[in-house]
Amino acid sequence: MNTEVAIANIRFKNPVMTASGTFGSGMEYSEFVDLNRLGAVVTKGVSLEPWPGNPTPRVAETYGGMLNAIGLQNPGMDTFIERDLEFLKAYDTRVIVNVCGKTIEEYVGAVERLGETSADMLEINVSCPNVKEGAIAFGQNPEALGEITREIKKKAKQPIIMKLSPNVTDIALMAKVCEDNGADAVSLINTITGMKIDVAKRKFVLANRTGGLSGPAIKPVAVRMVYQAANAVSIPVIGMGGIAMAEDALEFIMAGATAVAVGAANFTDPYTTVKVIDGIEEYMKNNNIEDVKELTGCVR
Amino acid sequence: MWIKTKAAKYAEAGQFISVYPKSAARLLPRPISICEIKAPDELRIVYRVAGKGTEEFSHYRAGDEIEILGPNGNGFFAAAGEEKEKNKKALLFGGGIGIPPMLELAKQLECEVSIIAGYRSAEDTFLMEELEEAGKLYVATDDGSLGVHGTVIDAAREYGIGADIVFACGPLPMLRAVKVYSEERSIPAYVSMEERMACGVGACLGCVCTSVHKDDHSKVNNKRICADGPVFPASEVEL
Fold it and tell me: Does A22 touch chain B (CB under 8 A)?
């Protein structure tokens, strides 16, 4: 049985990754999860300088989902490279570093710094809905998305994944723009902008007022968008949004995703990633599937 | 609620456990402080029904199986370090649902222990018998129906309770007042903080508090309540 997949000529032992921001750099979860089992660890977004993030409350539960407005708090590139990337060297898994910035120069600067490191691939966060500058401002405008993709590709040493926002009208167009400007892959979906109001206090629950919705509640939207993106481009698509079990992951793969990522479900059950990997293997065994790639995009 | 779990063997006063609701509609574990530890395999939590998750917990029956993760975070003694060894008189402040962790702490402290518990009213009291056994108990109520009419700080002033170490858990305004009270008297104080959490293990950065100094882990003025706390020296956090 073969669960291996490849993205931009980089091989992954299986198609299951962690979704950026839900797994730190793997350090906190390594007590529960054998990181060697994972296809890849996708790290929490890192910028050149440390970012303090948003005021609290930063998280809120919703029916079948959760809202977050962390605001990309991160310790900055120096600490990330010395501590987090160094930690991950001990594991036999791929490392995908999620990159954020406020300007194109900051993104490119971060990509250049990471060019000298052991990171296998970079995922460019142009879709965080919780920061005022950068991020989603690039991800909602096709011209801006094309430009930042192009500028990053000029300097990048590793393959580039553009992480797309679902808060757009035409996801296929955004995926195509990334492909046309040299992206090696796209990943989607980031969170859907949402809001929750505390009716007893008559106040917003999150200090940021709005937050990104994730969890099982968003899965049908994510599967639809992955299907549309996968049918619009020939570069690999990494699917995510509400994956909590193997069946969810298989939906994304059948919709056209080469690989998948587990996000909010890590909070519900720290062992989710490994359960998803085991579940995919079991499905393959029960259905006489020799190679997981037979399932990729099999529903048309 | 008493929980039979191996986690009891490793638990310390002031740590918390993540309790996972059974309903698939509720994604996030509820962080609940440990109220009592009976090694090797029993933990007690006392919680308030504040939403749908804790409402679900309140319907559990003896013998039901639940999923928990823990013990999580750093307890009172981990935060106090060497200060714990020096003290002879400890003063514990507990406000409302911040009272439960004070019970295990009071039981473990080997010195003279005074506890001030703040309730809304005489009707809302809980754990009073256990607290009385664990230390000298003083009570304050918001409406004056029991003990001192006012806050736990009002009670501390009224009774003139001396101490050389202070521990506190309760709502933010209470922790602020405890910090001022102990600073005025130059008593080291340790406060247990609360915030909405997601992962409970330090990965998501949902539950941060503002730190006085740049934090070594985050490289900004933020500490993770779940992983770096929930107990902090009052001098290290902005309240």
Answer: yes
In what helix (H) or strand (E) does residue B81 lie, and over which residues does it extend? Answer: none
Q: Tens digits of per-residue pLDDT, B160-174?
A: 998 999 999 999 999
Domain boundaries, chain B: 2-72, 76-193+231-236
Which of B 59-88 lie inside 8 A of A, CB atoms? Answer: 69
* Interface check B131 vs A, CB under 8 A: no
Please list every residue in chain B whose beta carbon sits closer than 8 Å to the beta carbon of residue A262: none
The CATH class given to the B2-72 domain equals: mainly beta
Listed in sequence order, the residues at least 6 apart from A105 whose beta carbon sits closer than 8 Å to its beta carbon are none
How many angstroms separate the first and last alpha carbons of chain B?
Answer: 30
**Interatomic CA distance for residues B94 and B160, integer angstroms:** 17
Q: Which of A160-169, B130-139, B157-166, B202-211 has the lowest mean pLDDT?
A: B157-166
Q: Round to whole Å and give the CA distance between A121 and A8.
A: 9
Pick the CATH number of B76-193+231-236 from 3.40.50.960, 3.40.50.80, 3.30.70.360, 3.40.50.12160: 3.40.50.80
The residues pairing with B184 across neighbouring beta strands, listed in sequence order, are none
What is the radius of gyration, based on Cα positions, of chain A? Answer: 18
Which residues in chain A are contacts of B207 at CB distance < 8 A? 56, 58-59
Query: A266–B203: do the CB atoms touch at under 8 Å?
Result: yes
Give catalytic status of residue A128 as yes or no: yes
Give the full edge-to-edge strand order of the sheet including B30-38: B2-4, B42-45, B30-38, B16-20, B67-72
CB contact under 8 A, B227 and A28: yes
Asked if the Cβ–Cβ distance from B205 to A73 is below 8 Å, we say yes
Q: Report pLDDT digits (tens) over A119-170.
A: 999 999 998 877 777 678 799 999 999 999 999 999 999 999 999 999 999 9
Shortest alpha-carbon distance between residue B225 and chain A (Å)? 12
Interface residue A204 vs chain B (CB under 8 A): no
Q: What is the pLDDT of residues A214-244, one digit of tens each?
A: 999 999 999 999 999 999 999 999 999 999 9
Measured CA to CA, the distance from residue A25 to residue A239 in angstroms comes to 20
**What are the E-state strand segments in chain B?**
2-4, 16-20, 30-38, 42-45, 67-72, 89-95, 112-119, 136-141, 148-149, 165-169, 189-192, 208-210, 222-224, 231-233
CB contact under 8 A, B222 and A268: no
User: Residue B211: helix, strand or coil by DSSP?
Assistant: strand
Amino acid at B229: G
Cβ neighbors of B77 (< 8 A, separation 6 or more) are B12, B13, B14, B84, B108
pTM to 2 decimals?
A: 0.94
Is B220 within 8 Å of A216 when comparing Cβ atoms? Answer: no
- Structural domains of chain A, with CATH: 5-53+70-190+214-294 (3.20.20.70)
- Say if the Cβ atoms of A22 and B204 lie within 8 Å: yes
Mean pLDDT in residue range B214-221 = 95
List B residues 132-151 in contact with A (Cβ-Cβ < 8 A): none
